[in-house]
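User: Could you go from structure to sequence for me? I need the amino acid at each position, not a summary. Structure tokens:
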């Protein structure tokens, strides 16, 4: 057999030149390594679509999970807070009620304070009036201290009138409205006797009895010392006794005259005729120390 005819190299070159003349460019010969693979592009596109789908599914899952968790947590929190809300609501109502009550009580207290202040002032005024009335009701009374128990017998008024006449050297027995022991329990053996309270009919006679009792001191009855005093109330007696130290100091100041007037007012008259009145024993003591005693020289005491 004869071999197939070969194309001549001249013919191939002539074709290549004609193609180059048509396109104007020279195309290199294709290499097997640079030939594109249609299957590889398809795989890449598929992977991209799968990645997008996975991202979308991930976002949906996360969103749904968050919604589920959020709903559960919200329900649990709401269930846990519900008792607290109920308690807070009750406490809020209680606080509002207490605030209203406090406001109401504040108004009442203000009114009560004003009432108490007024009543306190009235009670103080009434107490002073009662004290003054009680003191005036005792103006004709004398108090006799130191008379033994039981010596008065069954007629204490007549006994006291006779006792005053004999002790004070009076011409006649003073007219007494009544006389009795103080209303405390009868003393036991060894205890001091109860004083007598005698109401003198005439105020001038009562003053004469007190004057003579002061001038005739000490007075004795059955060998016992007896004293006669004005009958003051407990409040007045306490006020007057507070001046005892001042009066003792004034006794040592020659030329100074003094007297304790009702209810408890100390009047001091200096040698020059200046008169001072004191209702406070501390002020009186300070005055005597700083002014009265400095006026008296040691040689004249």
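Assistant: Here is the amino acid at each position, in order:
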């Amino acid at each position: 057999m004869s071999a197939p005819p070969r194309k001549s190299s001249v013919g191939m070159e002539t074709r290549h030149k004609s193609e180059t003349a048509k396109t104007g460019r020279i195309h290199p010969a294709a290499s097997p390594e640079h030939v594109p693979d249609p299957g590889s592009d398809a795989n890449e596109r598929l992977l991209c679509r799968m990645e997008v789908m996975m991202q979308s599914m991930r976002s949906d899952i996360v969103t749904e999970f968050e919604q589920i968790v959020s709903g559960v947590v919200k329900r649990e929190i709401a269930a846990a807070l519900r008792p607290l809300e109920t308690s807070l609501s009750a406490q809020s109502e209680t606080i509002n009620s207490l605030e209203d009550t406090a406001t109401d009580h504040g108004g009442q207290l203000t009114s009560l304070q004003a009432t108490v202040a007024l009543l306190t002032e009235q009670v103080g005024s009434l107490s002073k009036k009662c004290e003054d009335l009680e003191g005036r009701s005792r103006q004709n009374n004398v108090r006799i201290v130191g008379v033994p128990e039981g010596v008065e017998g069954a007629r204490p008024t007549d006994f006291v009138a006779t006792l005053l006449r004999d002790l004070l050297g009076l011409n006649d027995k003073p007219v007494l409205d009544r006389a009795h022991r103080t209303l405390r329990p009868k003393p036991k053996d060894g205890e001091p006797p109860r004083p007598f309270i005698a109401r003198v009919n005439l105020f001038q006679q009562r003053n004469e009895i007190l004057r003579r009792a002061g001038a005739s001191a000490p007075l004795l009855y059955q060998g016992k010392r007896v004293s006669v005093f004005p009958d003051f109330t407990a409040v007045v007696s306490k006020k007057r006794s507070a001046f005892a130290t001042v009066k003792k100091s004034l006794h040592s100041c020659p030329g100074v005259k003094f007297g304790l007037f009702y209810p408890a007012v100390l009047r001091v008259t200096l040698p020059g005729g200046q008169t001072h009145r004191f209702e406070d024993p501390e002020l009186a003591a300070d005055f005597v120390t700083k002014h009265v005693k400095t006026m008296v020289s040691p040689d004249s005491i």
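One structural detail worth keeping in mind: Confidence is low (pLDDT under 50) at residues 1-34.
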